[in-house]
UniProtKB/TrEMBL annotation:
Lineage: superkingdom: Archaea
Role of this protein: Function in general translation initiation by promoting the binding of the formylmethionine-tRNA to ribosomes. Seems to function along with eIF-2.
Domain Tr-type G, residue spans: 13-228
Organism: Haloplanus salinus
Similarity remark: Belongs to the TRAFAC class translation factor GTPase superfamily. Classic translation factor GTPase family. IF-2 subfamily.
Protein name (record): Probable translation initiation factor IF-2
Keywords: GTP-binding, Initiation factor, Nucleotide-binding, Protein biosynthesis
Any one GO MF annotation of this record: GTP binding
Segment forming the signal sequence: none
Residues bound to GTP: 22-29, 84-88, 138-141
Entry GO terms, CC: cytoplasm
Length: 361
């Protein structure tokens, strides 16, 4: 315990928000599925929580997947919240108070294909938003002569390969490192990186066999813990702040918002201000909805109601007058503040966001 414990009472470390980007077919969806699948096969109920638009993987689960790579005692961040890949267009509009909504990103690159047009686009967006990222060099299992080691850390996998397979993979990895360097990023295989603020770490993975997934989670957790603790310190009791992922019609609820909350708490009945097409929308939260657990998905009702959600989390908001809400727009809880001040806040933030009219969701 430090000599001066000056933290506010309700200061809490929130979950870092992780986005997965990359060229089509390079394996974004598969990688997220693998992370979810590995978490589920870790066993305990509650190993992951499916949110609206996001998946929460708690530290214990990460340490279960990562084995000896992660000692949970070394961490005090609660885990990782993966946004369910909304695509580049949405990513570039997903801001939080001027920065990127995602605290950290995984750029997925097919180890055989290397950089492709959407990889370049993603890199530009990451540069522009100043989002720290690592590269998942995916599909290592497709290396000729590969001897797959299901779910193992990369070092274990490497040792199981023939010299020939290993050097084939190395060639491809160095190609990607070269392409990162051409794009202006000093990069190296992650275990050679000392300073992740100066260098991009490349993590060889397979979304198919799960090889390298322990390393990927370890590096994400380590980076967040090391460089983002200040950013993750929030007053969880404070008025909620979030970003709209999607505006959706939902049977029985009308127009709803899928939102990622990155600060404070959002409660049922809260007055909120949401960025709209013409002007900020002022409304009241009628219901907060989360997906029902997988086992119950066949039942009529798709959602569970919750009283409140604290950052970081994905949630669906049902409220009146949301028809003009926009993906990428800010959502703010008014609670305890002047409504006009919050409206002005949302207005100025909206002014910074280039509205992406081609948003396909
Ligand atoms: P996305 O468009 O980036 O989301 O890519 P997907 O996750 O849909 O993957 C595209 C294709 O590549 C699918 O057929 C996947 O099964 C396949 N794929 C993805 N990751 C891997 C991998 O690590 N190994 C192999 N062999 N195939 C993969």
């Amino acid at each position: 315990m430090s000599d001066s414990d000056t933290r506010d009472r309700s200061d809490t470390l929130r979950t870092p928000i992780v986005a997965v980007l990359g060229h089509v077919d390079h394996g974004k969806t598969s990688l997220l599925d693998k992370v979810r699948g590995s978490a589920v096969s870790e066993g305990e109920a509650g190993a992951i929580t499916q949110h609206i638009g996001a998946t929460a993987v708690p530290l214990d689960t990460i340490s279960g997947i990562a084995g000896s790579l992660v000692d949970p005692d070394d961490f005090d961040l609660p885990g990782l919240l993966f946004i369910d890949t909304p695509g580049h267009h949405s990513f570039s509009t997903l801001r939080s108070r001027g920065g990127a909504l995602a605290d950290i990103a995984v750029l997925v690159v097919d180890v055989n294909d290397g950089f492709q047009p959407q990889t370049e686009e993603a890199i530009d967006i990451l540069k522009r938003t100043g989002t720290p990222f690592i590269v998942a060099a995916n599909k290592i299992d497709t290396t000729p002569g590969w001897n797959p080691q299901e779910g193992e850390p990369i070092q274990v996998t490497y040792e199981a390969q023939s010299d020939r397979a290993r050097s084939r993979l190395d060639e491809n990895l160095y190609e990607i490192i070269g392409q990162l360097s051409d794009a202006g990023f000093s990069a190296d295989l992650y275990w050679r990186v000392q300073d992740f603020q100066a260098n991009v770490g490349v993590v060889p993975v397979s979304a198919m066999t799960g090889e390298g997934v322990p390393d990927l989670l370890t590096v994400l957790m380590g980076l967040s813990q090391r460089y983002m603790k200040d950013q993750m310190t929030i007053d969880v009791e404070g008025p909620g702040a979030g970003t709209v992922l999607e505006v959706k019609e939902e049977k029985g609820f009308g127009t709803t918002l899928d939102v990622v909350i990155y600060d404070g708490t959002l409660r049922e009945g809260d007055e909120i201000v949401v960025g709209g097409l013409h002007e900020p929308i002022v409304t009241e939260v009628r219901a907060l909805l989360q997906p029902k657990p997988l086992a119950e998905i066949r039942t009529e009702k798709r959602f569970d109601r919750v009283d409140s959600v604290g950052a970081a989390a994905g949630v669906k908001i049902a409220a009146p007058d949301l028809e003009d809400a926009m993906a990428g727009a800010p959502v703010r809880v008014v609670r305890g503040r002047e409504r006009d001040v919050v409206v002005a806040d949302v207005e100025s933030e909206l002014a910074e966001i280039e509205v992406d009219t081609e948003e396909e969701g």
